[in-house]
């Protein structure tokens, strides 16, 4: 399951499939501390086009159709990242994301 979820995270990082992959009630606490709604993400974010370097990847099944993915991004955008993914009729969708900067 980790491989599947990381592939979906990569599509979002590349600015692909936002409309399909973000749950209608998605929101995020970004690395900057800003709270982003799905509408704001769709309007303003285009992805940064790179594959983040990841360490400390883990995934936990919270329910039959719900997974929590966490990992550490490295480099200039170093942060602990956490996503909640739910399986819907539309496929896997990110319901929540949070990035906490690493000083």
TrEMBL record:
Domain of life: Bacteria
Origin organism lineage: Bacteria, Pseudomonadati, Pseudomonadota, Betaproteobacteria, Burkholderiales
The protein, known as: DUF4440 domain-containing protein
Entry-linked InterPro entries: DUF4440, NTF2-like_dom_sf
Residues in DUF4440 domain copies: 17-94
């Amino acid at each position: 399951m980790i491989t599947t979820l990381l592939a979906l995270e990569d599509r979002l990082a590349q600015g692909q499939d936002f409309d399909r992959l973000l749950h209608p009630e998605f929101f995020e606490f970004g690395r900057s501390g800003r709270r982003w709604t799905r509408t704001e993400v769709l309007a303003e974010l285009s992805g940064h086009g790179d594959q983040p370097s990841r360490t400390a990847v883990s995934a936990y099944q919270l329910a039959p159709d719900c997974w929590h993915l966490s990992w550490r991004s490295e480099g200039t955008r170093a942060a602990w990242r956490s996503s909640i993914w739910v399986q819907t009729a539309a496929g896997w969708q990110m319901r929540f994301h949070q990035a906490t900067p690493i000083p």
